[in-house]
Structures
1.
Amino acid sequence: MASAAQVKSAQEFNKKIQDQQNAAPAAGAPNALGGHPYILLRDDFATVVAKSGAAMAPGVGPVKTMGIACGNRTPDCQKIIAGVQADSASAVVADATGKGVFPGVPAGTYYLMISAVYNNQPLLWAFRVDLKAGPNAVTLDQRNTSPVN
């Protein structure tokens, strides 16, 4: 469960995103998600980590597992990164406004994964998206963030 500070941070972050989407951004004030990678996975992240062969400690989620592995520069970090790359249907880096477009992705079920740090708090969006033919859009806000555990 997210702490009160994480919830407040997520709410501030999402308010900033919403404010920027609803009004012209101030000069020199890019969207908080600008420059972050957006990854479209074929499987959910927990499955990707499990398939990678990285060791997951009991009670530790896949995001924290990756954070620990990469923070400690263990071989499991490279396993997870390779697993994400192998499972990616598409990936894009958001522009300065926070928008990202996945080109040429066929209709189907995918898992959107976006992580960011705002006010020194990690934030994660990791959820299923069912893409249909033609344009699709998702809204990122506090209702669809995931706990980082």
Note: The radius of gyration is 16 Å.
2.
Amino acid sequence: MTWTTTLDKAGNIKLPEDLLEKKAMKAGQKVRIVEQPDGSLRLKIGRDVMELAGMLDGNGIHLTLEQINEVIAKQGLKK
């Protein structure tokens, strides 16, 4: 899908409402702009790590950093 918007005099762009709704974006959310090798720009929309704090329910699972890295390494080998 393609959207078109206009750069204003202050250098700002307004994202279309339907795009904001589709991506569940909210005012104040960070958006990274990444230049691609071909010169095009890509918007990266994601959560800041700090927004994830408190999302786990504390089900009693506690892992060390080493254990977490081991799980990540094992999952990487499965791909």
Note: The chain has a mean pLDDT of 82.
